[in-house]
Amino acid sequence: MSANTGTRGETVPTVPPANPAVDTADVAALLERGRTLSTPVLRAAVDRLAQPMDTVAAYHFGWIDAHGRPADGDGGKAVRPALALLSAEAAGAPPETGVPGAVAVELVHNFSLLHDDLMDGDEQRRHRDTVWKVHGPAQAILVGDALFALANELLLELGTVEAGRATRRLTTATRKLIDGQAQDISYEHRERVTVEECLEMEGNKTGALLACAASIGAVLGGADDRTADALEAYGYHLGLAFQAVDDLLGIWGDPVATGKQTWSDLRQRKKSLPVVAALAAGGPASERLGELLAADAKSPDLDGFSEEEFATRAALIEEAGGREWTSREARRQHAIAVEALDRVDMPARVRAQLAALADFVVVRKR
Amino acid sequence: MSANTGTRGETVPTVPPANPAVDTADVAALLERGRTLSTPVLRAAVDRLAQPMDTVAAYHFGWIDAHGRPADGDGGKAVRPALALLSAEAAGAPPETGVPGAVAVELVHNFSLLHDDLMDGDEQRRHRDTVWKVHGPAQAILVGDALFALANELLLELGTVEAGRATRRLTTATRKLIDGQAQDISYEHRERVTVEECLEMEGNKTGALLACAASIGAVLGGADDRTADALEAYGYHLGLAFQAVDDLLGIWGDPVATGKQTWSDLRQRKKSLPVVAALAAGGPASERLGELLAADAKSPDLDGFSEEEFATRAALIEEAGGREWTSREARRQHAIAVEALDRVDMPARVRAQLAALADFVVVRKR
Fold it and tell me: Could you tell me which SUPFAM superfamilies the record lists for this protein (chains A, B) (predicted)?
C-alpha cells in the first residue's frame, strides 16, 4: 500500500485489485448503469409526493437548485444501485429485476441523509446547502418520512412473495440504520467509545443498508435465503470497509473532492474509527490526544478553533496509529467481503464486477 | 342536538346513537379490550429499540416520566386498537388476529405525533411535555423513525400473504398521513384555504389511518378486498367525523379534558374546519373575521395575544356559522361511516359495536 504522509487529499488505503482484469472504466460503467436504470424510476416515485415535498426532494437529489431551476447535481456515487443490479444478476435474473430494490434502497438512504443532516446540524452535503438549511427543518423531517414510506410502497406494490421478503429485509436494515444513528449521537456525548462499539455503530449505520443493496436484487430475482445471506455478508463487510474509508476522508479528505469542510469529523467531535483506535492505542501521542479531546468536550462548540488546532489533533491521531489502523481495517473488511462472494454460485463476470466494486469503494477519494 | 352556546368545555355535537342497545359502558369495555390486548405487544416491540430510544419511546407512551420513573400515563383514547380488533371480528376471525395490526397502526400514529409535535412546535400532549421538549429534537426525529420502521417489521415478520397485504395498506395510509401533514403546514402560511382543501387534508391526516385501523384486522383475518374496502370507507368517514370534533375541541374544548392550551388551534393559526367554513360563509362576521386573521397573519407569532383576543375570534367564527357547520359535518360523516357497515356481512354484535364506537367518537370531550 502507498505511504500515509498525512497530507489531505491523498489516496489513503490502496488495495491490490481482487481481479486485475477489471479496471476502473468497468466500475464507472457499472455505476453509470445503476444510475441510468434506477434514476427514471426514482424520479417517477418522487413525482408521487404532494407539493411542496416533491420540490424539496428534487432539490435534495440535485435535480433542481434552491430556486427551483433544473440542475444537474451530484447525486452521489450510486454504489447502492450498482450493487442492487449486480445482485439480481448474481441470482441469474436480469439486472432490471433489481431496479425496484435499487430505488427502494436509495429512498431509504436519502431518508436517512435528510434526517441525519438535520440531527447533526450539517449544513453542506454534496457541495450544496442541506435541505433543512434551504427549506427548513419541518420539510427535512417530512420529506424524509415520505421517502421512507415511498420505499416500502414501491416494493410492496409489486405484489409478489419476493417483494414481501425484500421489504422485510429492507425494514430490518432500516431499523439497524436508525439504531446506528442513535449510537452515533450518543457516542458524541461520551468521553470514551471502544473500537468495538464504533465498529458496531458503523455496521448498523453503513453496513446494514449496503448489505441490503447487495442482496435485494437477488431476493427480487427469487434467490434462496442462503444466497441472499452470503450477498448480505459481502455487502455488510463492504459497508464496513466503505465506512472506514469515509472515516479517513472525514479527517484527511480533500474538501474539494468530498464537498465537506476540512477536518469535518473533528469539527463535529465524531468518535470515528481513527479517533477511537488512536485513543485505544496507548503511548504518549494517544494520551496527549485524550487530554485534548477531553478538554474540547467541555466547550459548547469548536467554532472558534483554528485550522492549526484541528491539524494538531489529526497529527496526534496519526502518530498514535489511528490512521494506519483504520487503513488496515478497511483492507481487512474488503477481504472478508470478497471472500463471501465464493459462497454464491454466480457467473464469473458478475463475481468479478462485484469484486471490482469492492476495490473501488476502498480506493475512492470522496 | 344540544344548543351550542359557545361555552368552552360543553359537549358540542350530540348524535342519536345508531344502536340504542349499545351504551357507553360497552364502548369503554371495547376501548379497554383494545388496550389490554395490544399494550403488551406494543411494549415488547418498543423494548426492541436500542438505548436511549426505548426510554424516549416509553416516555412518549406515558409508561415512564421524564426522570425515568414508572408512570401510569394517559396513553390516549385507544380508538384505533379497538377498531383493529373489531375489524378482525368483522371478517369472522378472533379479535387476537387484529393485534399485530392494532400495534402497527398505533406505532405509525405515534411516529406521526412525535414528528408533528416537533414540526408544529407543540410543547404539550396528553397533559405532559412533548418528547422534543424533554429529550430534544434529534430524539423526537429518531424515535419517530424507529416506530415507523417497527410497525412494518412487526407486520412483515408474520411472514404471511395477509401480512404483506396489510403492510401495503398501512404504507399507503402512512403516505397519505404525511401528505396531510404537508398540506396542514402549507395551509398555515396561506391566507385562504377552501373547505374542500381542508377536508382533503383532514382525510389524509386523520381519515387514512383510521381507515387502515378499521380494515387491517379484517385483512389479517383473510378478508377479501371488497370487505376490506367497505371497512376502510367506514374508518375513513369516521376519521373525518373524528377530526371535525377535534377541530371543535381545538377551539372550544376544555383544556382540563383535552390537555391542550385554551384556543389551541387559534394560537397556532390552524386553518381548521370551523375557521375555513366561517371564512367561506360570507356576511359581516365572516368578513370581520377575515380582516382580523389577515392582520394576525402578519405577526411573527400570537404569543402576546390576550384570552379576550382569541375569544373575539372564536365568537366571530361561531357567529359566521363555522361552529354549527362543523358540528353538522361531524354528523354527516358519522352517518356515511355507519352506512358503510351495511356493505359488510358481519355478526350483528360486531356491527353494533362498530356503530357504538362511531357514536363515541362524535360525542367525546377530549
Answer: Terpenoid synthases
- pLDDT-derived band at A22 (thresholds 50, 70, 90) equals very low
- Residue A129, classed as helix, strand or coil, is strand
Q: Which residues, numbered 93 to 132 in chain A, qualify as contacts with chain B under a Cβ-Cβ cut-off of 8 Å?
A: 111, 115, 118-119
In three-state secondary structure terms, B129 is strand
List the single residue in A145, A150, A171 with the smallest CB-CB distance to B156: A171
Contact criterion met (CB < 8 Å) for A142 and B119: yes
- Cα–Cα distances (Å) from A281 to A193, A201, A290, A317, in that order, read 13, 20, 11, 10
CA nearest to A92, candidates A358, A344, A354: A344
**With the C-alpha atoms ordered A258, A263, A266, A272, is the resulting torsion angle positive or negative?**
positive
The residue ranking higher by pLDDT, B290 or B298, is: B290
Nearest chain B Cα to A181, which residue?
A: B142
What residue ranges do the domains of chain A occupy?
A: 24-363
Cell numbers 415511498: residue: A150
pLDDT tens readout for residues A48-90: 999 899 999 999 999 999 999 999 876 678 999 999 999 999 9
CB-count burial class (<10 Å; 0-12, 13-18, 19+) for A308: exposed
B178 vs A145, A152, A168: nearest CB: A145
Residue B270 CA to residue B186 CA, distance in Å, equals 10
Tell me whether residue A7 is exposed, middle or buried, using C-beta atoms within 10 angstroms of its C-beta: 0 to 12, 13 to 18, 19 or more: exposed
Cβ of residue B1 closer than 8 Å to a chain A Cβ = no
3-state secondary structure B50-68: CCCHHHHHHHHCCCECCCC
Residue with cell 449510537: A183
**Measured between alpha carbons, how far apart are the two ends of chain B, in Å?**
19
DSSP state at residue A128: E
Contact (CB, 8 A) for A18 and A359: yes
Q: Do B175 and A142 touch (CB under 8 A)?
A: no
Q: What is the DSSP letter of A50?
A: P
* Interatomic CA distance for residues B197 and B204, integer angstroms: 11
A216-229 burial, b for 16+ CB within 10 Å, e for fewer? bbbbbbbbeeebbb
Chain B residue numbers touching A163 (CB-CB < 8 A): 164
CA distances from A277 to A253, A309, B27, B191, B318 (A): 18, 20, 60, 57, 67
- The values of phi and psi at residue B124, to 5°, are -130, 140
Mutation to test the B interface, candidates A178, A185, A204, A219, most B Cβ within 10 Å? A178
How far apart are the CA of A143 and the nearest CA of chain B, in angstroms? 8
Report which secondary-structure segment, H or E, holds B125.
Answer: strand B124-125
Chain A closest-CA separation from residue B50 CA (Å): 6
ipTM (interface predicted TM): 0.90
Ordered DSSP codes for B302-334: -TT--HHHHHHHHHHHHHTTHHHHHHHHHHHHH
| Averaged pLDDT for residues A347-361 | 95
Can you tell me whether residue B18 is helix, strand or coil?
A: coil
Cα distance between residue B156 and residue B207, in whole Å:
24
CB-nearest to B138 from A142, A172, A185 is A185
Q: What is the pLDDT of residue B23?
A: 61
CATH architecture designation of domain A24-363: Orthogonal Bundle (1.10)
List pLDDT tens digits, range B212-271. 999 999 999 999 999 999 999 999 999 999 999 999 999 999 988 887 788 989 988 888
Nearest alpha carbon to residue B148 among B181, B169, B121, B174:
B174
Q: What is the count of residue pairs from A and B with beta carbons less than 8 Å apart?
A: 116
Interchain contact, A153 vs B167, CB within 8 Å: no
Q: B260 vs chain A: nearest CA distance in angstroms?
A: 22
